[in-house]
Amino acid sequence: MQKVKIFDTTLRDGEQSAGVNLNKSEKLEIARQLERLNVDIIEAGFPAASPGDLASVKEIARTIKGASVTGLARAVITDIDAAWEALKDGAEPRLHTFIATSPIHRQYKLKQTKEQVIETAVQTVKYAASKFSVVQWSAEDACRTELPFLAEIIEEVIKAGARVINIPDTVGYINPEEYGAVFDYLFENVPSIGKVELSTHCHDDLGLAVANSLAAVKHGARQVEGTINGIGERAGNTSLEELAVALHIRKDYFNLETGLNLQEISRTSSLISKLTGMPVPPNKAVVGRNAFAHESGIHQDGVLKEKTTYEIISPELVGFQNNSLVLGKHSGRHAFRNRLQELGLSVPEEDIKRLFGVFKDLADRKKEMTDEDLVAIVLEERLSK
Ligand code: KIV
Ligand code: ZN
């Protein structure tokens, strides 16, 4: 089965989440956990952004041996020099440099013509390739760029020495079918495309980041960029844990695998939530508190009979202990009886129906029934006898 590389940018794009600021030791702790998760590449920061970020990237590049470490640089020589200073002691110094290519960015942000953008990109890629072992080049706002121009600039930066070409959906604008077609177009229209690896980098403004990334791999991308818990600029980036589990569960469809140690997912998610101060929403796929919780009687009954009736991912796969049957007003008698047994409360079968009625009355008034509620129901019943 072919492999998809995982490029983790939790420490760079993820740290661009509003209100998040990680210090050096926090970044190092996260990088160590990403190494245990077995990501292929860690984007540790943006060295030109601040002396603190440069120091963090340097420390991570020196320490981490189980993954390549990279840093971001604009198409500016001083940015590339700062990144070199941070990364030169790493095992395989790797740079990620970018320039915007879309008409909106060219006109309003860069104030450069197409020709000038190509020239800047080529010069900076050549400069970077004279220092770094691997240069990755990104076309910022690629998905709002004219396709012929995108193909033209990619051909030029490949000739200048780029080894990985990233196609970011910087503003989370595209949809899966269109994004897949962008990759098809590049494979057909960039003569040197066979010399490089294509990468996907999606933002979640329309809630499509994971779906778009999956479309990209279906159309030939072999590197996926994203963050743990999907944190990142605005609505965030592709959730790497969702993407990796989707590829794993639907191997039959994608026929691709990541090298991630999936059992480290829950630990990685909790650590990042704790250190960034960004809680994981309860209904978040794969890592949310409710991702393996079953509430309705029909589902609980099914899961008690055979887990796979309502569970496509086993909680153990991603490092959780087990699923949970949350008792509430939608729960059925089967789950109620089961929980009483788990709590060691022996209740004769003829009493279950009546106690279940008491349980339903109380559940109507409460959001979630706790084990203490169940104990109280049983003890009250015993006292009233
Ligand atoms: O979203 C984006 O375009 C980026 C680039 C710097 C790759 O984060
Ligand atoms: Zn981004």
TrEMBL record:
Keywords: Amino-acid biosynthesis, Branched-chain amino acid biosynthesis, Cytoplasm, Leucine biosynthesis, Manganese, Metal-binding, Transferase. It catalyses: 3-methyl-2-oxobutanoate + acetyl-CoA + H2O = (2S)-2-isopropylmalate + CoA + H(+). GO terms for cellular component: cytoplasm. GO terms for molecular function: 2-isopropylmalate synthase activity; acetyl-CoA C-acetyltransferase activity; manganese ion binding. It is an enzyme of class 2 (transferase). Mn(2+) binds at D13, H201, H203, N237. Pathway: Amino-acid biosynthesis; L-leucine biosynthesis; L-leucine from 3-methyl-2-oxobutanoate: step 1/4. Its EC number is 2.3.3.13. Residues 4-266 form the Pyruvate carboxyltransferase domain. Its cofactor is Mn(2+). GO terms for biological process: L-leucine biosynthetic process. Belongs to the alpha-IPM synthase/homocitrate synthase family. LeuA type 1 subfamily. Homodimer. Catalyzes the condensation of the acetyl group of acetyl-CoA with 3-methyl-2-oxobutanoate (2-ketoisovalerate) to form 3-carboxy-3-hydroxy-4-methylpentanoate (2-isopropylmalate). This is 2-isopropylmalate synthase. It comes from Mesobacillus persicus. The gene is leuA. The chain holds residues 1 to 385 of 512 of the full protein.
